[in-house]
Amino acid sequence: MTTTSTASSSSPSSSSSASASSSSSGGVGKAGSPVFAVDGLWKVFGPKAERIPGDSALTDLGPAELRARTGCTAAVRDVGFEVRKGEVFVVMGLSGSGKSTLVRCLTRLIEPTAGTISIDGEDVRAMDKARLRELRRHRASMVFQHFGLLPHRSVLDNIAYGLEIQGVGKAERRKKATEFVAKVGLEGMEQRKPGQLSGGQQQRVGLARALAVDPEVLLFDEPFSALDPLIRRDMQEEVIRLHREEGRTMVFITHDLNEALRLGDRIALMRDGRIVQLGTPEEIVGSPADDYVREFVRDVPREQVMTVRKAMRAASGDEADRGPAVAPDTTVSEAIEAVARTGSPARVVDEGRCLGVVDSQALLGVVAGTGRPADGTGGPADAVPDADGDAVPDADAESRDARSAGEGVA
Amino acid sequence: MRRKMLSAVAGVSSLLVLTGCGAADMTKQASPFAGVAGSKTVTLSVQSWVGAQANVAVAQYLLEHELGYRVDTVQVDEVPAWDALSQGRIDAILEDWGHPDQEARYVKDKKTITPGGDLGVTGHIGWFVPTYFAKQHPDVTNWKNLNKYADQFRTAESGGKGQLLDGSPSYVTNDKALVANLNLDYQVVFAGSEAAQITQIRQFAKEKKPFLTYWYKPQWLFEKVPMTEVKLPAYKEGCDADPEKVACAYPHTPLQKYLNSDFARGGGKAAAFLKNFKWTLEDQNAVSLMIADQKLTPEEAAKKWVGSHESTWKAWLPK
Amino acid sequence: MAATTTAVPATGAAALARSVVKHRAFGKLLLLAVVAAVLIPVVNARWASGTWPEALTVDVSDPLTKTSDWIIDNRDSHPLFLYFFGHVSNAVVLSVRAVYVVLLAAGWAGVTAAAALIAWRVAGVRLAIGTGVAFLVSGLLNMWVPAMQTLALMVVAVLASVVLGALLGLAAGLSDRTYRALRPVLDTMQVLPAFSYLLPVVLIFGIGVPAAVIATVVYAAPPMARLTALGLRGADGGVMEAVASMGTTARQRLLTARLPLARKELLLGLNQTIMMALSMAVIASLVGAGGLGDRVYQALASVDVGAALAASIPIVLLAIVLDRVTGAAGERLGDSGSSASSAKSGLVWWGCVAVGAVAVALAGRFTDRLNWPQGWVVNIAEPVNRAVDWMTAHLYSGVPYVGGTADWAGHFTTWVLDPVRDGLQGLPWWSVLLIVATLAWLIGTWRTALTAVLAMAAIGALGVWKPSLDTLSQVLAAVAVTLVVGFAIGAVAARSERLERLLRPVLDVFQTMPQFVYLIPVVALFGVGRAPAVAAAVVYALPAVIRITTQGLRQVSPAAMESSRSLGATNWQQLRQVQLPLARPALLLAVNQGVVLVLAVVIIGGLVGGGALGYDVVFGLAQGDLATGLVAGAAIVCLGLMLDRVTQPTERRTRKGA
User: Fold this and answer.
1) Where does the ABC transporter domain start and stop, copy by copy (chain A) (predicted)?
2) What distance in Å separates residue C267's CA from the closest CA in chain B?
3) What sign does the dihedral C437-C438-C444-C445 (CA atoms) show?
4) Rounded to whole angstroms, what are the CA distances from C649 to B220, C513, C653?
5) How confident is chain B (319 residues) per 10-residue block, as mean pLDDT?
């Protein structure tokens, strides 16, 4: 993963553990019913928008044609996905791809045109005003790109705002807010106004405000896009740390592929309102669903995203018994290091069982983007997911399992 | 939902206003600046011209210093003053130049205003030329010769015609009709306010320029700029009945006082005093000149006059 | 009517025309020409006359007179008056009286101390000193009691305006429909001259303080409503979304986010409301408001410029101080406040302010110094009058070479005002409409053109076509002079920091000086007639034009200036090729403001011989003649609307602020 580039200076293995652990703590243990389940979701802007989703003559049109024919813009088109408990679900796309609209539909900040959304099995679209407020107050908190802080309130009062809305008493909410000030590292700035803070500090306030109400899900709408690159990196670390500590479910919107790869357990890549591919970072990078995605991930340092699982081949001869052992979710770049050090192919070992081996040729193949081991013998077919990430939940789950196990190895 | 709530609030509050407080007759209302200590207060109307200021200044001085009243003054134009008088916003007008419409409505019809008798001064409106010009051209004082001098009375404002300077819009004037009906080659130029008219007359006088102006007596300006009246066709009773067809001079009007009816009945000594208040043209002019020319405050002027005319005002005080 | 028929086909054919002719302005012109070519022969055949045809006028004087009579007859008996206006009126009297009693009880020392302390709290030490000085000067000029009367009236009027304006603004800020309904009304009220409110108000409330307060409220509430609505609507969408995402109720959103976010606009609204109310203070004296305005008005009657000035100086000082204090308070808010100013310390502060003021007031009471001491009075009337006399005596005529002001006035009347007026009045009525339509459409949209043409047609229908064109000619002349002088001074001031600093207090004074004060000097210099009316308008409108010009030129991006300098441009080249083109929006705004302000003093022009509509309004007021006054007032409003639309570039509609 790209994480390594920061952390590798100190210890390459710890970085991989950090990213791996992000999925582990809450993730698999409580896996089961999804937090959010979205199906057939549409959001169309424009006159008489409600007729579009049902009309198959219109749903097939491209954005330009649709606008020309109906004057409508479909920001979200027939989107379906599930967000599992404890995972970081990233929605990624360029501006205009509909990702921000999508996340707003989840709590009906934008009213969807068609489709179903449920949170913990409860139909969000059927909620009345009071129930919806309840949802927004306690179950899903949002962090915004432009912070959305109240300029006339101090840092402390901004963080306490969500509690104030809920009717929590002044002393209690201040006490609680003070905790979260510490949590996001803003001690000593409690009385400042947002205007006196830097962008990064403001977003920490936004984060603390969202956390203070102890929501079930955190929604992030491009929270770090407005920040400088270095600050952005810090904030990403912060989110990773929070996730590791609390295991809260997160839906994270971004246009930054690196950010998506770094944070996401799974990534939904959007284009023109549709999800073009949904899968783990490795799947997206390793098996782009189409040319658009391929173009998108072209410059990604593949060796840092791809794991050896995708590059290995069956062991031949005594390969299964010697050479360095690596976990299945070891990144290719780490495997290269091991292979280079020992000069022999590395064994991919999971729970003591040897799954296969990676040799320098295979690893170079990944780096070069030729995709498969050069010798053409082919890797284990079952380990390579279909082009469509959606269609292979098994492979996905397996990979997750593997990764979480990998933590133990590291 | 919000709209419903708003309208409900509005409805309730208007109901409260309607039922909770009962009727409020704003015609029985005093000025918020009236005597705070609860002393007896008289409110007098001051019109914009200085003669009226002189009446009020003297009346005010005597009411305050001899009868122990507090006096408020309100400056309003003549017609609105009638209206205010009928509403009781003011208690008395001390100098009225004749408003038959208002008199019919408020005195005869609604009976909210009571005549308060003569002021003792006779007012007269007319056309005037400066005396320095009349001396050079004696025949200008007859309206028939005015066209001969139209050229000399020309200004940029009147264009190709002679200028007849008129004053404040609150004053009674038939000049437009007069110019038309007497076939005069003149243009009526409205100064729009007395202040503007006086300033203009003084500028003309300073340069000894000829001018023709609508003006009235008594007026202190005659002391500063001597003016001679131009004779118009003689006034006959009723010749000014139709404002479109007027072709005669303005009448001589004995100036009148008017009191609010309630005040006239229940105003005690103040009402009696104001009914008795009556002085001469000279008296009024003396006070006017102190105010307008020596720039004394009305109060100082009144004090000065009161000091030297005890016999006159002693007679006004109610026994 | 003709106006409507001009515009309706125009819109339909607009698309066609656009495809034929690429250039928009040219397209518009061509389209208008076509419409004109079709309509004019028809119109001309039917109503061939130079002036507005009789057949197209509506006589409104009868119903107006009847209304006026009905009000007078029913004022003391009809439930509407007994149960509504009566209570309004009583409430005004009671509250003004209450404030007045408090002010008198506090005594001059208490009032001054309280004002200075408040200013210190919200705006700092310098303004506190300024505030104290302003009040002391009022006392020194022997204007303490009238100043307190005016202050009492202003406090009530401003509070009422703010409450009313805020409520309206709230409604418009929260509901799109209310906003759409209210916006044109508020826009129109902004070009309404203060005088036009007096007549109907006086008819209902009679003369006196209630009428003055109500007229002031009607005049001063619109900016508050406008800015409140703007502030509420302009709330940062991101913040509002964030707040909504936390599950706020509508009421919580309003109270904790929308209102606090709009506080800068609210404060600006307060500032504008105070300024408008103060500018009404003198005009309200026409309906018997008492106070400083009454002193100005009485001084006017005895042609005493000095006394009028003495009564005006407190108004001017009060206006400048209040402007600065509310402005400074706004800036402090804008800084988001220093971290120290928490709610608790604020309360302590205000407590100190209150205690201090009460202490001073009590000290005044015990030393029996409630009234301003008689000995501490400076009489400025005499020297001022001498100065004015000297000035008018030496400038009026016979100045060597350049001629006196009276000669200028004469030449201006003969060579500028007369030809423009005669030209306008000589034009066939439909061609005036056509010109208006062309100008408005070229500068704006077909909507603005339609409004402008309708406004002009309304003037004709009201039967005041001729005097309106007379007024229009004066307005055009005054605007031209204002712009020439204003742009020139503005351009110079923009280049010299020092000059701008020198100009600032002068402009402040002229902007806040009651217009009645320069009435006499203007007549003394220019004689009676339209020339002094134009002069008064120029004096009134010039400060705003200079200010906007200076700011506009100043704001030209330094990068553009630097690059042109680096290319070796001369000062003149810089001004002409860089600054003027880049400052174009500001200059257009200056034109628009100039027009609106000039129109606002048309009625003052009526008081110095300007005649036409201004005189008619004054006449209506003086004679209680609703028909004449109201019709003339309405015509001024229509002229204002028309001129505003004709000079209002479309972009400005999206601009913030009043």
Assistant:
1) 61-297
2) 25
3) positive
4) 53, 30, 8
5) 56 50 60 60 82 90 88 81 83 87 87 89 90 89 87 84 86 86 89 85 87 87 87 85 83 89 86 90 88 83 90 86
Give residue C293's Cα distance to chain centre.
17
pLDDT digits (tens, 9 = 90+) for A5-50: 333 333 333 333 333 333 333 333 344 578 889 999 999 988 888 8
Cβ-based neighbour number of residue C493 at 10 Å: 24
**Cα–Cα distance between C329 and A357 in angstroms, integer?**
73
Question: Hey, is C444 helix, strand or coil?
Answer: coil
Side chain identity at residue A373, one-letter code: P
Quick check: C294 and C285 in contact, CB under 8 A? yes
Top residue of C243, C246, C333, C338 to mutate, by most chain A CBs within 10 Å, is C246
Tell me which chain C residues have a C-beta less than 8 angstroms from the C-beta of A145. Answer: 238
Chain A positions touching C240 (Cβ under 8 A) are 148
The contacts of residue C319 (CB under 8 Å, 6+ apart) are C274, C275, C278, C279, C512
A110 and A138 part of one domain? yes
Shortest alpha-carbon distance between residue C343 and chain A (Å): 11
The candidate with the shortest Cα–Cα distance to B30, out of C146, C106, C290, C219, is C290
- Paired tokens of B249: 């001079």
CB-CB under 8 Å, A165 with C252:
yes
Q: What is the DSSP letter of A313?
A: B
B24–C302 C-beta distance less than 8 A: no
Q: pLDDT tens for residues C22-80?
A: 566 677 777 777 777 777 777 766 666 666 777 777 777 788 888 888 887 777 777 77
- Residue-wise burial string across B117-143, b where 16 or more C-beta atoms lie within 10 A, e elsewhere: bebbbebbbbbbbbeebbeeeeebbeb
**Token pair recorded at residue A273:** 């309102």
Evaluate whether B44 touches B71 at the Cβ level (below 8 Å): yes
Instruction: Give A36's Cβ-side CA count (13 Å radius).
Output: 31
Last-in-domain residue among A265, A294, A323: A294
For B160, list phi and psi in degrees, rounded to 5.
-80, -5
For A165, the closest chain C residue by CA position comes to C248
The CATH number given to whatever domain includes residue A107 is 3.40.50.300
* A147 in contact with chain C, both atoms CB, cutoff 8 A: yes
CA–CA min distance B319, chain C (Å):
33
Domains of chain C (ranges, CATH numbers): 1-48 (no CATH), 94-378 (1.10.3720.10), 404-650 (1.10.3720.10)
The beta-carbon neighbor of C247 closest among A137, A149, A191 is A137
Matching CATH topology for B39-122+254-314 and B124-252? yes
Residues A305 and A271 reside in one and the same domain: no
B282: contact with C, CB 8 A cutoff: no
Tens of pLDDT, residue by residue over C506-541, are: 888 887 788 777 777 888 888 888 888 898 889 888
From chain C, pick out residues whose CB is under 8 angstroms from the CB of A142: 242, 245-246
Is the Cβ of A202 closer than 8 Å to some Cβ of chain C?
no
Take residue A188 and report the two structure tokens written for it: 């000593």
Detail the DSSP E strand segments found in A264-319.
266-271, 274-279
pTM exceeding the 0.80 threshold for the entire prediction: no
Q: Vertex B114, ends B109 and B117: CA angle to 5°?
A: 130
Q: CA-CA distance, C129 to C106, in Å (whole number)?
A: 19
Q: Report the CATH architecture of B124-252.
A: 3-Layer(aba) Sandwich (3.40)
Cα separation, A236 vs B41, whole angstroms: 80
Q: Quick check: C246 and A161 CB within 8 A?
A: yes
For chain B, helix (H) and strand (E) counts, in that order, are 14, 9
